[in-house]
Amino acid sequence: RMEGFGHYALPTGTEYRGSLWDGMFHGQGELLSPGGGGYRALWVRGVPTQGKFAFADGLEYDEEKWRYCDGYDRRFYTEICSGFKPPGIPQFTNLDPPKIIPEGCYDCGDGFYNPKTRVVVDYKHKFLRNADNDEHEWILRTCRKGWDVTTEHKLKP
């Protein structure tokens, strides 16, 4: 079995880097997600005992003091770090500029969703999953859509 410091790639693309003992995560180690971000923890026989999750943009999750998008402060993390854009220049996502959504699809946070095929692909257009009915309804209700009708500003006569 694996022991010492090592790297372990999971079939999902997630990678563990850290101490191993008897084939288990044991000691300091980090799970790195393929989309960025990761979970750094102290592991005991495969179970995390102390840890912190950091998103791809550097925002760290804190279970006790979590204030990000809590209803009182709706700024994106990039706005918290860099400030607001000038008036009239909206910021629709934490990424700036946001991903360009294919026509008729939705940006569901970890990729694009096509409601006709009910397939979610990552931002490089690789298959992620098929959406069930609950996810389908949630995406249609809450996520940004790649408009199928172009809108333009028309001057008033």
UniProtKB/TrEMBL annotation:
Out of the domains of life, which is the source? Answer: Eukaryota
Task: Locate the transmembrane regions by residue number.
Answer: none
Check the record and name the InterPro entries matching this protein: Morn5
The alphabetized UniProt keywords are: Cell projection, Cilium, Flagellum
Cellular component terms per the entry's GO annotation: motile cilium
| Cellular localization per UniProt | Cell projection, Cilium, Flagellum
Where is this protein primarily located? other
PANTHER family in the cross-refs: MORN REPEAT-CONTAINING PROTEIN 5
The molecule here is called MORN5 protein
The scientific name of the source species is: Lanius ludovicianus
Gene it is expressed from: Morn5
